[in-house]
Amino acid sequence: MQFLDEAKIYIKSGKGGEGCVSFRRERNVPRGGPDGGDGGKGGDVIARAVSGLNTLIDFRFQQHFKAKNGGHGMGSCRHGANGADIVFDVPVGTQIYADDNSTLIIDITEEGQEIILAKGGNGGLGNLNFKSSINRSPRKTTPADPADERTIYLKLKLLSDAGLVGLPNAGKSTFLSSCTRAKPKIADYPFTTLIPQLGVVYIDDKEFVLADIPGLIAGASQGVGLGIRFLSHVERCGVLLHLIDVTNDDVVAAYKTIRTELAEYNTDLAAKPELVVLSKCDSLPESDIDIIRRKLADHIKCKMEDIFTISAVTKTGVNELLRKAYKAIAAYRVD
């Protein structure tokens, strides 16, 4: 399935049915009173959040959603039928914006959540409603309400508990595939990951959702590379797993590059709890890894033990990292 995280659609509710002007006319009642029925209500346009979706690709093939109009009132006190609603499904995590593409209408964060985006028009009143002791034969009706139509924008922010960030080819996809059932493309060249990937991590009878986005590079906050476009998909997470390739020529520079881009993109995202991880540790001797680890710890001003060392291929250190990540996520959920 293709990934699409933005869509523009047109919606239109149903207009109300018109009220009827009618009088009772039967063989033995040649001059009966008014019996015009009311018009039916127009259908609503409703957005509904469902599980199992993580893309807006369906809206590439359908951009117009129109509810049914209400039926007109008829004689013999018959009211018009209400127009059928139209409901379209969106992934959990979808934000809906008005036609200016900046005014947020709703942020959908729960499965089953629904919102009426365009309310159907009320039907007009038939002349039966205007009968009185003074006016026994009213020909008055009220007009039906018109349809509500607008253009709206859908923007998807995937809901994940933890997010993977790092330079291209830092081993994020390999890590994701090693601890979840996700099957991202893995290769030894940059930008193998072109779209966000989600996986569910199971550790010690607990679980959380892990998101991998395309790697960031210097200048990403100004639009260079791919990852900046998808950083919104880790904005909601509780902890960032910052992976750094231990074979990188300068791990400190690699760390600083990512931190700079996160801060320039969104200060709230940069302020999230972070677990710093040296990946691909099966590639170097342990003595060399300790030197690199110490150098990075001195720069971050943290303990050496606070920097994790893993090998996604051999799964060394992976479970310890996942346990620490879950603790950070649990603390975030409490807050």
Find the CATH superfamily of the largest domain: P-loop containing nucleotide triphosphate hydrolases
* Distinct helical segment count: 6
Number of domains: 2
Number of strands: 14
What is the helical fraction, as a range of percent? 10-25%
Calculate Rg over CA atoms.
30 Å
Uncertain segments are 186-192
Please state how the strands of the largest beta sheet are arranged side by side: 10-11-9-12-13-14
What is the CATH architecture term of the largest domain? Answer: 3-Layer(aba) Sandwich
Mean pLDDT: 87
Instruction: Write the element-wise H/E pattern from the N-terminal end onward.
Output: EEEEEEEEEHEEHEHHEHEH
Q: Which outline best applies?
A: rod-shaped
Task: Provide a compact summary of the structure.
The protein is of the alpha/beta class. Strand 10 and strand 11 form a beta hairpin. The protein has 6 helices and 14 strands.
